[in-house]
Amino acid sequence: MSELKGYKGKIRDFLTQNQVKVGDLIKITSELTFSGILMPRYESGDESHIVLKLKSGYNIGIEFEKIEKIEKIGQVEIGIKNSQTIEKNEKLPKILLLSTGGTIASKVDYRTGAVTPALSASELYEAVPEIAKIANVDAEVLFSEYSENLQPEHWLEIAKKVDSVADSDYTGIIIAHGTDTMHYSSAFLSFALSGFKKPITLVGSQRSSDRPSSDAALNLIAATKFLVNTESTGIFVVMHQNESDDTIACHFGTRVRKNHTSKRSAFQTVGAEPAFVVYENKILKNAEKEFFNGNEYNPKINLDTRVALVKYHPGFDSKIIESLIKLQYRAIIFEGTGLGHVGKTMYDSIKKAQENGIFLGMTSQCIDGRVSMTVYESGRDLLDMGIMPLENLIPEVALVKAMWVLGNSDSKKEAKNMMLENYSSEFWVNMSEVDIKNIGLYENLEQSITLIEWPELIKNKPQNRLDLFFEYKEDYNKRSLIIKTNGRLKIHEF
To answer: Distance (Å, rounded) from C-alpha 440 to C-alpha 148?
Structure first.
């Protein structure tokens, strides 16, 4: 590979004449004087700047036309210095670390600009020596891809690898993963490995390890602490809770999304606090329930990618739906407005999709809350067309779940039932006492009638109450009502 990767034209000629190459320690005299490492350029970069990595760890671009002098003052030693064999402490638990790529699992070769895996045991311990005091780590590179390049077939490979160590002596598993699609991977693993008996953490980094503000080491350390100290099982995304370095969040893998492009605290649990928080050496638990709703480990590592996630917007061309029908898609997940709506211009195409046996599910574009398609006429119309409301499933999770369901079901009826079953906390049920007080639920209960929608969200319900249960028929055109009495109301007849 070229010693002047990414540099073109007159800049390349200038660097060649001065016998300077990528990775050299150089001094540049311009309007100011700078010293640092000559960095590679992206192939698509402009031809006007030289990139220098300063001692602080930050990169700067220096305009070529303003450079008065350049000189080589040294060379960066590539590789790990004084690498030593790490003697494992047999008293410590064992952790398996699987690398899939991404910022957290990479190092930069300053000679070429190439990003390569840096996850041998020696490299890992060298980069993050704190881990050696917490656990013995075995590291394996599954593949090295930016997360935007990870496809469902990669999910399958990860799941099969994890399944292969289900009966091993590993205490837990870390999956190093790029952040952009980490919540998709965590969702699939949550369904495919339902009931897995060891905790699994997906760990990423918003900032590369060669930057002073990198979060890579802190996230890895926190994930390791969590695995060896938790008594819970499940699939968790472990990232910074906020911009400080003392608190790392462990999010349920089906209730998390990336909400910011660059913040270290980009990942947030939707609708609640993260399930766990790692604070110094403490594991703080917020989750009231365990992640998996079943106790048996029942892996189902299959999927069908013929699922589309359609985000409705004003002006949406319904011909897109008809194209999906022609392409023989088996499911469409709508990301509707508000409580779960799409415009009337979509109706004819939706009916055609229903007639062609395509599963139709509805989620909401709103970050929080759940769909409720019986409130407005338009929602009821969509129910009549066969669209299934998917409660408060995050749209991305609904997409992944539909892929998994279609790969593991034998009929449309079975697929519908599986989509509504809560396997891995994908349907969120949580409401704090503060939330209840804020809406005034406990005010004047004896002097008035209060109707509560979604009462399952409330942990401590009023003693004297009526519970109304609606059961929908398969076609959603009919429903029955069951009334149960509680407290003093048991003496009344209804």
So the answer is: 45
> Rounded mean pLDDT of the chain?
85
Task: State how far the Cα of 409 lies from the Cα of 397, in Å rounded to an integer.
Answer: 18
- What is the band of 78 on the pLDDT scale with cuts at 50, 70, 90? very low
Residue 402's nearest CA partner among 439, 371, 443, 361 is 361
Residues 269, 252: Cα–Cα separation, whole Å: 7
**How far is residue 271's CA from residue 259's CA, in Å, rounded to a whole number?**
13
Portions of the chain given CATH number 3.40.50.1170: 94-285
Q: Say what the pLDDT of residue 192 is.
A: 98
Q: What is the DSSP string of 424-440?
A: SS-S-----HHHHHHTT
Per residue in 373-383, pLDDT (tens digit) is 998 999 999 99
**Active site residues per annotation:** 103, 179-180, 258
Query: Is the domain defined by 94-285 classed in CATH 3.90.1700.10?
Result: no
Residue 16 has a CB neighbour count (10 Å cut-off) of 13
DSSP characters over 198-249: SEEEEE--SS-TTSTT--HHHHHHHHHHHHHH----EEEEEEESSSSSSEEE
CA separation for the pair 311, 365 (Å, rounded): 8
Residue 266 is which amino acid?
A: A
Which class is 9-75 in CATH? mainly beta
- 50 neighbors 40 (Cβ within 8 angstroms): no
Domain with CATH 3.40.50.40 in the chain: 307-420
State mean pLDDT over 202-215. 72
Per-residue DSSP letter, 305: -
91 membership: H or E segment, kind and range: none
Segment 404-412 mean pLDDT = 95
Cross-strand bridge partners of residue 239: 249
Tokens describing residue 13: 């000629």
Fold classified for 307-420: Rossmann fold (3.40.50)
Using CA atoms, how far apart are residues 361 and 103, in angstroms rounded to an integer? Answer: 34
Token readout for 463 is 């003693």
Of the listed ranges 22-31, 58-67, 70-79, the one predicted with least confidence? 70-79
In the predicted model, is pLDDT for residue 263 greater than 90? no
CB contact at 8 A, 209 and 124: no
DSSP characters over 456-477:
GG-SS--SSEEEEEEEE-TTSS
pLDDT tens across 24-58, in order?
999 999 989 999 998 887 655 567 889 888 887 67
